[in-house]
Write a structure and sequence with these properties.
The protein is of the alpha+beta class. The protein has helices at residues 22-34, 49-52, 60-83, 88-101, 108-117, 134-145, 180-194, and strands at residues 11-17, 40-46, 156-160, 166-170. It starts with 10 loop residues before the first strand and ends in a 35-residue tail after the last helix.
Length: 229
């Protein structure tokens, strides 16, 4: 017997992502797949691994990414502030595809291409080096991260919980993204765990790098650590 709720009971899931995190990209592709088999709407928000790693010791091979990572999240926040939260979904989709599939890097060329693909004005690129956007960026980051604590990274997901209190959790971290009903079954399990009072962690060591499927949904690798690198 199916346990899928009626289509009229659509759930909004809020996901916080940094465009440069490969694990968050895979989880976001899974969420878009879940939308096809469950009554779910995914709403995108921006967190920043560069903000998360301020004042922390970062392995040498990731330090440049922490520096370069400011530009794309500043542009995302500038776009959100100017045009509303709904522009983050197409902009993140474009950035993620360029970064993780096309290996386009984190520079201005990638950002300009993503803006064009998302149908956004080219002048938003000016936000990339403008630290005045760091205030709104930090506020958006902390809205997502505060309910789950400082020991996690991206992705973070919030869903409505009992009594209107949101359920917030880090992950799931997975590769490759499940498809079809397998994606929905995983979503059902994640919700069951997240809604269990006192449940905190289920984890095992990773034995593979991120796997990007060229057929991943963009609307309808770097081997980095989603906890903060």
């Amino acid at each position: 017997m199916s346990t899928t709720p009626p289509r009229s009971e659509t759930t909004t899931a809020d996901i916080w992502v940094d465009p440069r995190c490969p694990w968050a990209w895979i989880t976001s592709r899974w969420m878009l797949e879940v939308e096809q088999v469950r009554p779910l709407e995914t709403r995108f928000h921006i967190m920043s691994l560069s903000v998360l790693n301020e004042g922390r010791e970062v392995p040498e091979e990731y330090r440049q990414g922490v520096i370069d990572g400011w530009a794309c999240v500043r542009v995302c926040i500038a776009a959100q502030q100017r045009y509303g939260n709904e522009v983050l979904r197409p902009l993140y989709n474009a950035m993620g595809r360029l970064i993780h599939h096309e290996k386009a890097g984190l520079g201005h060329g990638m950002i300009s291409a993503a803006l064009a693909e998302a149908g956004l004005p080219a002048d938003l690129i000016e936000a990339a080096e403008d630290s005045s956007w760091d205030g709104p960026l930090r506020a958006e980051h902390h809205d997502g991260m505060e309910p789950v604590g400082s020991e996690v990274g991206t992705p973070v997901i919030h869903v409505p919980g009992p009594g209107g209190k949101p359920l917030a959790f880090f992950g799931p971290v997975l590769t490759p993204a499940p498809r079809g009903e397998a994606a929905g079954t995983l979503w059902d399990g994640v919700l069951a765990l997240a809604s269990t009072d006192g449940f905190f962690e289920l984890k095992r060591g990773r034995d593979r790098d991120p796997i990007f499927n060229c057929a991943d949904r963009t609307d309808v690798g770097n081997h980095a650590d989603s906890r903060g690198i």
